[in-house]
Write a structure and sequence with these properties.
mainly alpha, elongated, 8 helices
């Protein structure tokens, strides 16, 4: 086996494995959302303010000022669907399906749009609460500075990676 074939095998396997792993983690997060633990409760554990548990009064304020409850369910169902699609495409990528890169680029654009819509829907109704409560402000900053970059790293990386000439040339050989 030549060095070119070895490198091609490595990037396909690594990229596919990353998609499978991230898809599995996203599936876990989506299932947490379906079980009742929303993203804000998960974010609250990432901030160094408070005692680690969200107080009942803060939780009531977040619910009162937030989007409707059905939005959280739809959001969780969408996350589960996005994660299952990513997981399956990672498996198909390891098997060198030539259609997978286009599907993953489309998934990436859809997921980026979805991420921004969810952030806007979660935080625009709560903007006055963000301005008046330091704990909520910390959760908002955790969303912007920790959660969003982590959520967008893979889709942006996939878009850049699959548009490289060398990767396109490798994929053209799969046909």
């Amino acid at each position: 086996m030549s060095d070119t074939e070895t490198n091609q095998l490595q990037w396909v396997t690594v990229c596919g494995a990353i998609c499978v792993i991230v898809g599995g983690l996203m599936l876990f997060g989506g299932c947490l959302g379906l079980s009742g633990m929303d993203e804000l409760q998960q974010l609250h554990t990432a901030i160094p303010i408070g005692d680690g548990e969200m107080s009942d009064s803060l939780q009531a304020e977040l619910i009162e000022h937030g989007p409707p409850m059905w939005f959280a369910r739809v959001n969780s169902i969408c996350v589960v669907c996005f994660s299952l699609f990513l997981l399956m495409q990672g498996i198909f990528l390891i098997q060198r399906d030539p259609k997978v890169p286009r599907r993953l680029i489309l998934w990436s654009f859809c997921f980026i749009i979805f991420t921004f819509v969810v952030v806007l829907m979660n935080w625009v109704p709560r903007w006055l609460l963000v301005a008046s409560n330091s704990e909520v402000k910390a959760m908002f900053l955790a969303q912007l500075l920790i959660a969003m970059p982590m959520q967008l790293a893979l889709p942006v990386g996939l878009i850049i990676f699959f548009n490289k000439q060398k990767v396109k040339a490798d994929i053209a050989q799969w046909r």
